Structures are given as C-alpha cells and as structure tokens.
Amino acid sequence: MATPQNINRVAAYAGRELCFMAKDAKQYRVNVYANRHEVDGDVIARVRYNQNLDYWDGRNWQNGGMGRHKGITKLKDGRYVIIKGTDWQGERDYAYVVDADEALQEILKSQNLDLLETKKFKELKNLYNEKYLLEDDELEEEAE
C-alpha cells in the first residue's frame, strides 16, 4: 500500500482530484528514448520504473547525487535501458537505450552484482566473465 513517504508521482487527473501513484507501483512507467541526448525526441518504448542501481551512501539510497536515482532493465528486443529517476519537483523521470558494455559498466559502478545472477541479465554476466579478469584464489592458497 502506498504511504505518504513513497507517494511522489502524479499518475493522472480524475475530474478535479489528483490521483497519485507510488513510485514503486508496478504500473508506474517511464518513457524510453533512443539515446540520452535526445530526451525530447520520439518515445521508443515505456518501461516499469525501478531504482535497482541505487546504492547506500551512508544516508540515502541514490545514484548520481541527492534525489537522483538510476535503474536498469531490458526491452523485449534485447536492448538495455538505463532509467534515470529524480525526486526533484519540475523534473521528469526518463530512460534511454545503452549497449551491453555500458549496461555492464552501470551495474559494476553500483556494485549490485546480484543483478548479473538474474535471467534478464545473463548476457551481461557472460560479458563480465569474458572481459574482466578475476583474481586467482588458487595462487593465494598455494603461497600459504
């Protein structure tokens, strides 16, 4: 159930009364644009809002500054989408398409590697395993 703390999005007008939708409601969606530089261009898709790239900074869950949030998802056609959210009045949430390398970088920067274990991001996990060298634990054990 939506509480006053998590209601911060206007969903629609119902007559004269405002209807509010919780940011975490499954039906809250944001527009997706072809790239981050054309957020006033054509909308190519709509995706569910999420903040799964946010991290705890010691006081707040954020990614990109106070009141800024970031999420990631994947379209049905396989393209990855970065979702940019804001708590600031007058600014809108939006999303844009990125390639697999940039999507992986965003996950690594947020340190939310659990996302790589999900079915949705299996391709990114494979890319991670190919691209990044992990330390060899066996060498450490032999030195002891």
Spatial separation of the terminal alpha carbons: 54 Å
Strand order of the largest sheet: 4-3-9-8-7
Radius of gyration, rounded? Answer: 18 Å
Helix content: 10-25%
Q: Please tell me the total number of domains.
A: 1
> How would you sum up the global shape?
globular
| SS summary, helix count | 3
| Strand-pairing-aware structural class | alpha+beta
- Give the low-confidence spans: 1-20
- In N-to-C order, the SSE pattern is EEEEEEEEEHHH
- The total count of strands amounts to 9
Major sheet summary line: 5 strands, mixed
Overall pLDDT, averaged? 81
Q: Classify the beta-strand content into a percent band.
A: 25-35%
Please tag this protein with its features:
144 residues, alpha+beta, five-stranded mixed beta sheet, two-stranded antiparallel sheet, 3 helices, 19% helix, globular
